[in-house]
Design a protein that fits this description.
three-stranded parallel beta sheet, four-stranded parallel beta sheet, 21 helices
Amino acid sequence: MTFPLRLDPDRLFPADGETAAVAQRLFAQVEHLPIVSPHGHTNPAWFALDAPFEDATSLFLWPDHYVLRMLYSQGIGFEALGVPHRGAEAKAERRAAWRLFAQNYHLFRGTPSRLWLDHAFAAVFGIGVRLGADTADLYYDMIGEALAKPEFRPRALFKRFNIEVLATTEGANDPLPHHRRIAAEWDGRVISTFRPDAVVNPELAGFAHEVAELGRLTGENTATWNGYLGALRARRGHFRKAGRATASDHGHPTPFTADLAPNECQGLLDRALKGSITAAEAELFRGQMLTEMALMSCEDSMVMQIHPGSHRNHNPGLFAAYGPDRGADIPMRVNYVDALKPLLDKVGNRTDLTIILFTLDESNYARELAPLAGHYPCLTLGPPWWFHDSPEGMLRFRRNCTETAGFYNTAGFNDDTRAFLSIPARHDVARRMDCAYLAELVLTRRLEEDEAAEVAVALAYGLPKKAYRL
């Protein structure tokens, strides 16, 4: 039995008619604004090579850790889904994997994944029936036929989605060949983001090798503290030039920062390169590097993003077999007030520095993050992230942060996605939820409607461009 798939034009708006009417009017001001996607993890090769996407399974199922974690939680193994083992090619029959996903699509009821996927199915591919066991083959065939057409290639979809700028994320040693090709061949604005985790986190596998490669690429002696910092400065310059980057990104376990003397830093670097550094010393090293990165941002004007609070690869067996980003990362509690103090003592009052803070620990919103961003000129709050990039998560963020930090100490919205076709859906959800929240303020006489309209436009478009210097 099939059921229709329809995107209700009033989805996510308040049930109350008067509030919904205000939300509708506000949304009309932002619905068709260009998409600014200043932070994410899409593959730049898509836009450099402009090759067709292959099929529904490789496009929607295998790369989406939100989808994989839900299916895995219900006992559906990755082997059955055709997810390739670490370092191996996918061997499973793709249609069979898609059928298994479709049979279990009910698991996503009430989740943001369902919103994003249905939006892509209906708005991008024009499918008018709901995904399920009896429509799995219809979906697979319709998506496959569409992907073979020129208008479904990455560059065409980029234009169709009305994307003004899209940032990808690459490691410090990446030569950025795809970004060079994009800049030389195409007018779509796809820029890189400098992600130095592999060369600043001594607890990651291959750290010493990555630091040596950093030295080889820059001609610096990265076994010395000054040479190591010089090499990082050089790579930041490479990203600004070859990747047109405006921001760095730091996925540290915690926001801990430090301000150590150079001789102490050299000692930590020595032990890190030898592999004899302790867990406490590794945290100290990472903390020092956040401060160093902030100082470099003062020099080169790159925006700094800090994404802490994830216990990465919590399931070691799954990580060993399938690698990272398979849905086994779990939020954990973090502290910002004490952790950021050394960094803020050094650069917190600077007006030429932008540090965008994210959190997976929502208990920090009202207690720490909003007061910090509502005081220090260098701090801006990033949008709800990862597990909280959802309708309810967005409302919790606005309700907890707005009274203390206001709207203009936030960075608007970014989608932070690996799933290219979910970008329009994610921005649509964010715009609707912001308009719903603003409508409440209008109806409770806390904002005039013309003010709410200005805020809606700022959140959807102006603030991301300002925060990321785009």
